Amino acid sequence: MPNNTTSFNLFDYMDTQDEINAFLRECLEDDDPNVFVSALGHLVKKYGVTDVAEVAGLSRESLYKTINGNTQPK
């Protein structure tokens, strides 16, 4: 049976930049830094890894390494 579901991304349901900023601030305040990294990863996926990497001045590979959850960016 084929899987016709798509990945859930909370940022798809936020209408304003203020909502996004507030959510990211809450994630940043969490004791677990991976909460923020995970949220950032979802935001990057919403806007496109290639576009975000270009704006951030990073290669796509560097950006993927940052948001993959296996590293702790500094």
Structure notes:
The chain has a domain at 18-67. Helices cover 59% and strands 0% of the residues. The chain has helices spanning 17-29, 33-47, 49-56, 60-67. The longest helix has 15 residues, at 33-47.
Question: Based on helices, strands and strand pairing, what is the structural class?
Answer: mainly alpha
How is the quaternary structure best described?
A: single chain
The main pleated sheet reads as: none
Strand content: under 5%
For the record, give the distance between the C-alpha atoms at the N and C termini, rounded to a whole number.
43 Å
Mean pLDDT: 88
The count of DSSP E runs of length 2 or more, i.e. the number of strands, is: 0
The parts where pLDDT drops under 50 for at least 5 residues are none
Summed up, the helix count is 4
Radius of gyration: 13 Å
The level of helicity is 55-70%
Order of helix and strand elements from N to C terminus: HHHH
Shape: globular
Provide a concise account of the structure shown.
This protein has 74 residues and is mainly alpha-helical. The protein has a domain at 18-67.
Give a topology summary.
Elements: H1 17-29, H2 33-47, H3 49-56, H4 60-67
Helix pairs in contact: 1-2, 3-4
Structural key phrases:
single chain, 74 residues, mainly alpha, 59% helix, globular
